[in-house]
């Protein structure tokens, strides 16, 4: 590791990013263990985070390194019969570690197009098996039992997907610039910048919670969607207190405020405003229709098989688990970059997610039985997949319990 | 990517090596899962093995990638209080997977000097914690419950340690040549070459089992060591049948025949003939004295703290678990290369190992109780560490139960 004072500007910024991840994203406690899941091309960031974590008193950093090429080799040379197999032992162990107090960092940065051109059915089965195997680990973070964060690392494959017109080095540099900017690492004091940004998100959350509306109404090109909200829903956004008492930022960057939709009360149609990359597969031009909360019709011009497989995962996979509002003025949206990465694209536009909700988006959920949860509109699923429905052309109204509509966003921006 | 015309012969040899690993080393069965533990610089081999494994019908390849730099960062920036922490959850999960039928490949190729210069006490504690945490996985392979293999991959760090006088690219090429040669991949038909080599090792095993001697006597510079053998010991070497019925080669390369020493009947002194690298730390010029089977005095000119910590791991760590004979004419010895890697160096010279024995080196051990095992001379320990004691200057005699000595090796070579 180079000495920090002598390090070049990139290394200094990388170190500052790593410290922001450890102190703002994870809010890692002394003596806490840390599991990092990361793609192999993100090793510079993995090592920088490892250093920042140990400097913060971490007791053990366990990187779990994923290789896109190994994945690709499977779909090209594996037996078709084998795609339903996944390493459950690993995620069970990870669930044990997280419940015992370890923190979890996910570094996102895979090539979003890596598996394009491979057999869609094989990928659908492979990702389903992996998704189901990973439930024991995913449940822990979704229930906020421990502090966790998802952040991004620029990698050659991802950079090339985002900036196909640039040379490799330039593309990588541009993507790093966008990541550093979104993570407020350009700022001399990123930790203070995050404090201010979290305060702004918390103020927006407070406003929406005071309003306590019954539904949101999205209107725009190809979209006329009424999303009923769960009874007793709670808006969230920015830093969040986990069940272990740690206040962390589960996503870096984050520009959204979000809450729990009512699983049975979503009506109308919606067109995705950005493509999304799920497990290295691009899903493009999603258009769906809801009836009684359920997606009854779904199309995509690309990755449709993967989308259909996702929707068929379980009964809750075709109902909503999250609705989130992001202004079109969000710095990530204003960068004008299409990232093909949910962590970024979902913070550039209002979005919905099919599948499981975040339990902390409902007041008093701890004391409810299954029947009470269903009555409030809580969805249940093993999947959680965000997709973007907001843009500068989309309006959002808040609908009160009385049925009265009040403008919340116009042309993608907050009214107040 | 290097120029295709130049790259092709290497890629072809790498693919042949990967196939040899899958079919000879692991003898992977269709539908079997495979866990690969490997250093990050070995990805070209990890990917080649992954492909060969899927082509052989493997159902899931799970690479577990280790990064030396992450390790180094820990010793430089971690809290001293934290070095006793290890990710037990991971090895417990791996033990579960191996018991459930997964095969295990270890790719060796770390920089043997990576941690030189770091705090020896910290490394001793860190490696001890890791060793103890890894017991659930290690036990499965040591008891031969599933098929497994240890193989090597040339990496820049290791190549530089072995060939410090060469440029980076030349060093890497030389090390690959040595690895390919030792794995018999130079041969047009490596699988046939391994069949012949396994037959030769099995013939030597048969000869020694017929002899059924009571002890081995090693004499050479700084060495006069009598190693009593366990009552009912069995010589092994080459391909071995695992408990799951698969006949595999647990080491590629392998040139040794080995058996179980008597834990209480080792007397005299011995000087290591090669340095050894344990968990990225070099231990040099080991010299020890045995009394009643136990090491009562141990020195090393380098890495002595790590050695002492190893010997103090548990009561069996200072007694022998393995003794192995390798002729000085072994192709690995004749390469004249000092590999600083046990997989290679132990196949260049006769050696002993402290710690746990291989249970299959004792006849009828399955039916014995603890008292019977102790009476036969079976050692018990959580560690297993080989070190080299043979050379062209070392003689070995077989001592019959009657006390009569018969020459086995002279100047490092088999008598017949």
From TrEMBL, chains A, B:
SUPFAM superfamilies: Thermophilic metalloprotease-like (SSF144052)
GO molecular function, one term: metal ion binding
Record InterPro entries: M29_Exopeptidase (IPR052170), M29_N-terminal (IPR035097), Peptidase_M29 (IPR000787)
Hydrolase as UniProt keyword: yes
GO biological process assignments: proteolysis
Cofactor(s) this protein cannot do without: Zn(2+); Co(2+); Mg(2+)
The keyword Disulfide bond is assigned to this record: no
Keyword entries, A-Z: Aminopeptidase, Hydrolase, Metal-binding, Metalloprotease, Protease
Family: Belongs to the peptidase M29 family.
Record protein name field: Aminopeptidase PepS
Taxonomy of the source species: Bacteria, Pseudomonadati, Pseudomonadota, Alphaproteobacteria, Hyphomicrobiales
């Amino acid at each position: 590791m180079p000495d920090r004072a002598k390090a070049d500007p990139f290394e200094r910024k990388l170190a500052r990013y790593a410290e922001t991840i450890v102190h703002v994203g994870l809010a890692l406690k002394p003596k806490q263990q840390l599991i990092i899941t990361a793609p192999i091309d993100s090793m510079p960031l993995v090592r920088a985070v490892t250093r920042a974590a140990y400097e913060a008193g971490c007791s053990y950093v366990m990187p779990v390194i994923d290789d896109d090429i190994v994945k690709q080799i499977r779909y090209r040379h594996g037996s078709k019969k084998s795609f339903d197999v996944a390493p459950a032992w690993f995620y069970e162990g990870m669930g044990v570690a997280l419940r015992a107090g370890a923190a979890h960092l996910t570094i996102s940065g895979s090539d979003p197009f890596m598996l394009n051109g491979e057999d869609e059915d094989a990928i659908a089965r492979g990702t389903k098996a992996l998704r189901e195997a990973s439930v024991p680990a995913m449940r822990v973070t979704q229930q906020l039992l421990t502090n966790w964060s998802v952040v991004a690392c620029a990698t050659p494959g991802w950079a090339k997907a985002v900036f196909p017109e640039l040379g490799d080095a330039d593309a990588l540099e541009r993507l790093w610039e966008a990541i550093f900017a979104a993570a407020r690492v350009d700022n001399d004091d990123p930790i203070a910048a995050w404090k201010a940004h979290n305060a702004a998100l918390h103020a927006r959350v407070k406003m929406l919670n005071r309003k306590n509306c019954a539904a949101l109404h999205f209107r725009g090109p190809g979209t006329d969607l009424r999303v009923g909200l769960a009874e007793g829903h709670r808006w969230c956004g920015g830093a969040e207190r986990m069940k272990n008492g740690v206040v962390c930022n589960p996503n870096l960057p984050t520009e959204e405020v979000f809450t729990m939709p009512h699983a049975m009360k979503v009506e109308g149609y919606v067109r995705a405003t950005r493509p999304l990359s799920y497990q290295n597969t691009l899903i493009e031009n999603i258009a769906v229709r809801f009836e009684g909360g359920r997606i009854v019709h779904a199309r995509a011009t690309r990755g449709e098989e993967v989308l259909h497989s996702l929707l068929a995962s379980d009964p809750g996979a075709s109902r909503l688990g999250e609705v989130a509002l992001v202004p079109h003025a969000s710095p990530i949206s204003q960068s004008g970059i299409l990232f093909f990465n949910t962590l970024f694209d979902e913070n550039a536009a209002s979005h919905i997610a099919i599948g499981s909700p975040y339990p902390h988006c409902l007041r008093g959920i701890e004391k409810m039985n299954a029947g009470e949860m269903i009555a409030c509109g809580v969805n249940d699923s093993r999947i959680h997949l965000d997709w973007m429905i907001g843009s500068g052309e989309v309006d959002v109204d808040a609908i009160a319990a009385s049925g009265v509509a009040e403008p919340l966003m116009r042309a993608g921006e907050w009214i107040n």
